Amino acid sequence: MTKVQPIDEVKDPVQEKSADLNKPQKSLIIGGLVVAAILLSYLAFTQTIAQPLLLVIGVLLGYTLLHARFGFTSAFRRLASVGNGQAIRSHMLMLAVAVTLFAPILAFGYSFFGGGVSGYVAPLGVSLLVGAFLFGIGMQLGGGCASGTLYAVGGGRTVMFITLLFFIVGSTIGAYHLPFWTEDLPAFEPVSLATSTGLGYGGAWALSIALFGLITCITIIIEKKRKPPKMAPVPSTRGWKRIFRGSWPLFAAAIALAVLNALTLMTRGTPWGVTSAFALWGSKVLMFFGVDVASWGYWQGANEAALQSSIFADSTTILNLGVILGAFLASAAGGLFKFTSINLKNVAAAVIGGLLLGYGARLAFGCNIGAYFGGIASFSLHGYIWGILALAGTSVALYIRPLFGLSVPKSKDSFC
């Protein structure tokens, strides 16, 4: 059997261009499909029509993320450590497809079910700067970003269950503290490249494509200067079977994720997001134990209805459950699902990383999905600022990772 490195790890011993895959774990596949079918049926009978559709989209998102090993954490780490920009260029392709799809949707302003649509456009202030920086550190200690944590849990990476737990804790604390960061500290109004500049969605699309091209060129220049190793191939298969088993090319996953994000926007009226559900889950637990979370500033106004409703009425929760299920099915189809070992240093890094991830995401108005992917796709300036500060946090985290026994890529390493 070919040994596959755990999800989102950087080093990979696989050097061959082709390798045999493990046999599908049929019992796990059947179990995952049964759980998905039960949840889909429950949503169809108890919730609006959008919820079961979002579950399907979530499953496809999780399947895509794991199949391609499509990472944000590892992409930032490769660039910051040795100058490998291959994965960042796949992000630029994803964003280019996303803005191309988002522009007409946001311009016309209608979803599949007749409601309005709105992108993620957030204020520019201290909260964003601090939150994105903390998130960048957190994802390098916790071993994954928001989407990475979900699909790593679905893939059976044991330590990521701890990261997820403290991600929820950190997000809940961040929700409690958010009024201080947003109301008591300086901030500028949100800036949309489309509506705040007079460019319109056509001009904002052209500017965005130019920026993605510039970032792509910068990564190529960095690679020529630093001469980092290329990403090593991972086990895959050929033909139509590759749809279900084996690794997908990064470019294919980038396109798929952009299309699925656009479908999410058309289905629920807002882009894909992850971490607002974590604040909801944590607050629901506190409510169960008698804490008056309804009095928090975060849960006033538009967020109040979510706190009082079932979590199955929360579209972000449904997407998250779908991502976990999709990653689980992809892992089982590739014969890869297996709980991994942990040690005290892994646990400590997961705890600290999870807290920073959750707290940072709340302060920064989102994570790598809601702020970076969704924000940039929505033509929001805060998405670009988030990316810069998260990369800065990643650079700092490279000096912290060895304290927890976590590797830092060197120029001689190969990448998965």
UniProtKB/TrEMBL annotation:
The keyword Repeat does not apply. Its main location: membrane. GO terms for cellular component: plasma membrane. Keywords: Cell inner membrane, Cell membrane, Membrane, Transmembrane, Transmembrane helix, Transport. It is a multi-pass membrane protein. The chain crosses the membrane at residues 27-45, 51-72, 93-113, 159-178, 198-222, 243-266, 278-299, 311-337, 349-372, 384-404. Pfam families: Sulf_transp (PF04143). Coiled coil: none annotated. The keyword Membrane applies. InterPro entries: Sulf_transp_TsuA/YedE (IPR007272). It is found in: Cell inner membrane. It comes from the Bacteria. PANTHER family: INNER MEMBRANE PROTEIN YEDE, SULPHUR TRANSPORT DOMAIN-CONTAINING PROTEIN. Belongs to the TsuA/YedE (TC 9.B.102) family. This is Uncharacterized protein. The lineage of its organism: Bacteria, Bacillati, Bacillota, Bacilli, Bacillales.
